[in-house]
Amino acid sequence: MGIASLILGILSLVCGVALGGLGFSWIGCIVGIIGVILGALGRKNPESKGLATGGLVCSIIGLVFSLIFVIACSMCAGVLGTALRSM
Amino acid sequence: MFPFIHIGPYVIPLYGLLLTTGFVTASTLTLIRIRKMQGDVDYAFVVIAVTFLGAILGGYFVYLFVSYGISNVIEDIKAGRLDFLTNPGIVFYGGLIGGTAAALLSLHLFQGISLEMFVKAAVPTVPLGHAIGRIGCLLGGCCYGFPYSGRFSVCLKTVDHRVFPIQIVESLLNIILFVVLMVVSARIKKPINLLAIYFCSYASIRFCLEFFRGDLIRGIYLGLSTSQWISILLFIGPFFILLFSKVKKRNKQNNQEF
């Protein structure tokens, strides 16, 4: 679980920080949430606690950056849709 | 007002930034409170993550049904098109219902943290996160009030006239609700009632505030907006639960006296 969390955390960081503005933020968000769950559960195992903690931290940071773009894109699309319908 | 800030070559959307800040603030405060109550922080992380997922999906689906329309979604599915997926947006009520359902489900599945403890720690933090998120709405230019050009009116980039800053009013009321719930949570004997108190209070606030809204992203049925209908449903259920709990408590006291 620790290794899986770390991999998902790094993937989420890449999607959120580097590719957030390119529409990959949805993937970063979902991957980040799964990474947080696996990281938190992985911390229960003393052998993989370090890896799991690293995965948890990476997943949280990736999730936060992904969320910023997901929410912002949602609003832009919503406002644009409303504007088009009211025309 | 200010949808974006520019930091060097980066463009940061303030709506997303503030809503995420709201999520992070509420989650951090919940974790601090759980640690103070000597609960398992790792399981709390899991429950919060699942709640996030439920909140985002719930907010998205309610937005889809309200703005895009159920009939259009069904038509798209029948025709094998995925047009409805390219129409994203988030509604708070959908997020609240989806998040609550996901939290209850994960608490039942993982059982590393008690329902009472999580409700006691998390419920008061929701209005604080919501208050921060609403400021994001003001800066982003959505969820605005009716056309108004008097004192405190604001000019948004998404509308061509000045509007009433209903987002600030909702934000302030949410902060008051946060303080009240923090005080109540310290004294409440049955923490699950805190959820009912929050639902009843927020539903009442939202029902009244909807009359001052001026944005177009809302369905109107029988003179009331979708959010007002959800407010009525959200008020009735928890209100009767609270009433039933009070009556049960009184009956128990009466039986003990005899």
Task: Tell me the layout of helices and strands.
The complex is a heterodimer of chains A (87) and B (258).
Chain A: H1 2-18, H2 25-42, H3 49-86
Chain B: E1 4-7, E2 10-13, H1 14-36, H2 41-78, H3 92-110, H4 115-122, H5 125-140, E3 154-155, E4 162-163, H6 166-187, H7 192-209, E5 220-221, E6 224-225, H8 226-257
Antiparallel strand pairs in B: 1-2, 3-4, 5-6
Helix pairs in contact in B: 1-2, 1-4, 1-5, 2-3, 5-6, 6-7, 7-8
Question: Can you walk me through this structure?
Answer:
The complex is a heterodimer of chains A (87) and B (258). Chain A is mainly alpha-helical. Chain A has one domain. Chain A has 3 helices and no strands. The longest helix of chain A has 38 residues, at 49-86. Chain B has 258 residues and is mostly helical. Chain B has one domain (4-39, 113-257). In chain B, the strands form 3 sheets. In chain B, strands 1-2 form a two-stranded antiparallel sheet. In chain B, a hairpin with a 6-residue loop joins strand 3 (154-155) and strand 4. In chain B, helix 1 (14-36) packs antiparallel against helix 5, helix 2 (41-78) packs across helix 3 (92-110) and helix 7 runs antiparallel to helix 8 (226-257). The radius of gyration of chain B is 20 Å and the shape is globular. The N and C termini of chain B lie far apart (65 Å). The relative contact order of chain B is 0.11. At the A-B interface, helix 2 and helix 3 of A face strand 2, helix 1 and helix 2 of B.
